[in-house]
């Protein structure tokens, strides 16, 4: 009983293997598609061979066999092959799915089995009418047919074996049963040829499968490499390379179809302080969370990419108009203000977005990006934390800036640049205690140009260090004539404190000026300090070692933390005008300034309040305990010639009177 069960199991296993061997692969879709493609190219030749040999056999037996068995059968084979061929011909340019390809190959196996068995039975039936010579011709033509068809099916193992065995086995049996020397020889020869041919098919099909498998792995590796090359490794978003490639593609499509789209550039306000304070691990986690948040908010209509650092990019594919575009972008800005909870800390940042729309803003993809970037730059100066759409006004600004930059480059700055001075007064004594040096430019070409215009242009054009040197030299020369208790306050740019060469030049100018460094305060904005905190800290320490004072300008408007401020050797903070305006009527401003005054006192720092323009503002500040003020209420910036009047007894009371 055990032996019978074991035999039955072996037989079942053997049959299962035979079925799998002769079946179209189920678990290798790439191999199935490749087999379909190769076989499709061989279909016309294969059917041509079948029909030529069928008509050859029919012609040989035309005179001795019934007409229906010769001409009619050959015509029937011809009709079937033509119909079958027409289906393949119509689908020759269609790329089927793996499922469709597998179904087509299964039909090929079935049709091949039916056709080969039918032709074989037909040939053997004709053999009953022929003599030994004619039967030899049948064997020859059928052998040629079988070999040729199997060669055409070389990469389709299942069909090749089905056709080869369907033709060979009946003929081997038939010629063996004839029991003549020649028939036995033909049977043995067909057995040897068929066996050899099917072994070749098995080997080649395995090599073909291995080649397809290798190609598939290579394609997968290439796709993965391409994916990695186009993906940001930190956030998983499209990277800068993929963004610009997609931007060019969508631009060409939109131009061809007359559609619109928009580019948005997102810059995180306050990322660098977080990164510097908590370290790169927290900074990376923050960027990943921002990427997730942007992707979740963007949906399917907005493509998100990370350009690098804390800068992201958006492509808006579907929006109604400019108002809708701004509303969607503003919604992103609002969402980005929500606290971001990380593993060890909860942080708050904001995001500014610059927008440019096609086709109304720019006709070129690169110009579109540049104008979105320009809108971002302007937005961060005036509407930080909000969305700004590039407009005709920005276009006019670009034209003016371009002209301004060219004139600035060609200018004789030593002659054209002058220094004005705005006093800083002590409320208690009513006396001027310092002057802030301010740049003024009168161009022979453009006339008087506002610092709000030419300073940003000088920074972008790389001319700010030259301006700094000229202004500092002139300001120091003027300050030499002041009383020794009157200080000079001078602004340094981001470039001045982030460049070792720039700092060296400033130190050299100060050392050779003849003025005591302890009489000079250098003002640095929070934005400049946060650009590169470590370099800024090193620069500040160098200036402090010389004896200079360091004032943190526009305090409260940037993104520095109290920890970072405490780590810097500051001597003063300057409270920004935005907190002072209307302080006599605004409880919120009152509380903010009160807190900042208390903070400066607790940290042992001097505190200058900027932008005091009305008597009511000054009186409110005096009640809060403010001491040093600067603003139009006391004096506008004045040229060197008017300084003597301010130092010669002009007091707060005289101004108020």
Q: In words, what does this structure look like?
A:
- It is a single chain.
- This protein has 25 helices and 16 strands.
- It has three domains: 2-222, no CATH class; 240-390, Reverse transcriptase/Diguanylate cyclase domain (Alpha-Beta Plaits, 2-Layer Sandwich); 413-656, Alpha-Beta Barrel (TIM Barrel).
- The model has no long low-confidence stretch (mean pLDDT 83).
- β9 (432-443) and β10 form a beta hairpin.
- The longest helix has 49 residues, at 181-229.
- The strands form three sheets. It has an eight-stranded mixed barrel with strand order 8-9-11-12-13-14-15-16.
- The N and C termini lie far apart (126 Å).
- With 657 residues, it is of the alpha/beta class.
- The radius of gyration is 44 Å and the shape is rod-shaped.
Rg is: 44 Å
Uncertain regions spanning at least 5 consecutive residues = none
Strand arrangement, largest sheet? 8-9-11-12-13-14-15-16
The first-level CATH class of the largest domain is given as: Alpha Beta
Mean pLDDT metric: 83
Share in β-strands: 5-15%
Q: What is the distance, rounded to the nearest whole angstrom, between the alpha carbons of the first and last residues?
A: 126 Å
CATH superfamily of the largest domain: EAL domain
Q: Look up the CATH topology of the largest domain.
A: TIM Barrel
- The total number of structural domains is 3
Q: What is the 3D shape?
A: rod-shaped
Largest sheet entry: 8 strands, mixed, barrel
């Amino acid at each position: 009983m055990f032996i019978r069960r074991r035999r039955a199991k072996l037989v079942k296993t053997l049959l299962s293997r035979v079925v799998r061997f002769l079946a179209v692969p189920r678990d290798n879709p790439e191999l199935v598609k490749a087999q379909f493609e190769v076989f499709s190219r061989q279909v016309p030749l294969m059917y041509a061979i079948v029909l030529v040999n069928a008509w050859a056999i029919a012609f040989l037996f035309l005179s001795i066999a019934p007409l229906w068995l010769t001409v009619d059968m050959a015509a029937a084979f011809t009709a079937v092959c033509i119909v079958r061929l027409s289906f393949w011909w119509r689908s020759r340019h269609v790329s089927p799915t793996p499922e469709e390809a597998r179904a087509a190959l299964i039909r090929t196996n079935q049709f091949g089995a039916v056709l080969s068995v039918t032709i074989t039975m037909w040939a053997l039936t004709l053999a009953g009418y022929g003599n030994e010579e004619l039967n030899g011709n049948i064997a020859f033509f059928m052998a040629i047919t079988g070999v040729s068809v199997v060669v055409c099916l070389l990469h389709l193992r299942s069909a090749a074996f089905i056709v080869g065995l369907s033709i060979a086995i009946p003929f081997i049996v038939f010629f063996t049963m004839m029991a003549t020397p020649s028939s036995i020889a033909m049977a043995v020869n067909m057995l040897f040829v068929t066996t050899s041919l099917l072994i070749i098919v098995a080997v080649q099909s395995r090599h073909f499968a291995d080649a397809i498998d290798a190609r598939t792995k290579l394609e997968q590796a290439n796709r993965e490499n391409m994916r990695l090359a186009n993906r940001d490794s930190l956030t998983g978003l499209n990277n800068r390379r993929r963004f610009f490639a997609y931007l060019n593609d969508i631009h060409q499509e939109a131009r061809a179809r007359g559609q619109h789209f928009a580019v948005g550039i997102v810059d995180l306000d306050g990322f660098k302080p977080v990164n510097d304070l908590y370290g790169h691990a927290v900074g990376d986690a923050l960027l990943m969370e921002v990427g997730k948040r942007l992707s979740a908010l963007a949906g399917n209509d907005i493509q998100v990419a990370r350009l690098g650092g804390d800068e992201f990019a958006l492509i808006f594919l579907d929006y109604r108009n400019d108002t809708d575009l701004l509303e969607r972008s503003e919604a992103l800005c609002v969402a980005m203000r929500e606290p971001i909870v990380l593993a060890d800390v909860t942080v708050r940042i904001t995001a500014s977005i610059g927008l440019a729309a096609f086709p109304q803003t720019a006709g070129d993809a690169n110009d579109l990006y540049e104008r979105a970037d320009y809108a971002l730059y302007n937005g961060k100066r005036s509407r930080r934390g909000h969305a700004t759409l590039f407009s005709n006004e920005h276009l006019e600004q670009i034209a003016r800036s371009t002209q301004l930059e060219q004139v600035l480059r060609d200018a004789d700055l030593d002659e054209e640049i002058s220094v004005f001075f705005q006093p800083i007064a002590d409320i208690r004594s009513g006396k001027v205690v310092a002057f802030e040096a301010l740049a003024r430019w009168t161009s022979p070409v453009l006339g008087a140009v506002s610092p709000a215009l030419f300073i940003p242009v000088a920074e972008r054009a790389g001319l700010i260090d030259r301006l700094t040197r000229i202004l500092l030299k002139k300001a120091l020369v003027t300050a030499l004539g002041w009383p020794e208790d009157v200080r000079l306050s001078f602004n340094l740019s981001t470039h001045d404190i982030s460049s070792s060469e720039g700092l060296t030049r400033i130190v050299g100018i100060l050392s050779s000026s003849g003025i005591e460094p302890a009489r000079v305060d250098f003002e640095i904005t929070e934005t400049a300090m946060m650009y590169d905190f470590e370099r800024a800290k090193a620069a500040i320490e160098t200036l402090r070692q010389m004896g200079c004072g360091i004032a943190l300008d526009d305090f409260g408007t940037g993104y520095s933390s109290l920890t970072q401020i405490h780590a810097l050797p500051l001597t003063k903070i300057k409270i920004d005008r935005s907190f002072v305006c209307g302080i006599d009527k605004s409880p919120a401003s009152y509380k903010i300034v009160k807190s900042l005054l208390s903070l400066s006192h607790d940290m042992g720092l001097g505190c200058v309040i900027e932008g005091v323009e009305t008597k009511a503002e000054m009186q409110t500040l005096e009640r809060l305990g403010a001491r040093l003020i600067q603003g139009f209420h006391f004096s506008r910036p004045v040229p060197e010639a008017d300084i003597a009047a301010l130092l010669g007894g002009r007091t707060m009371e005289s101004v108020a009177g």
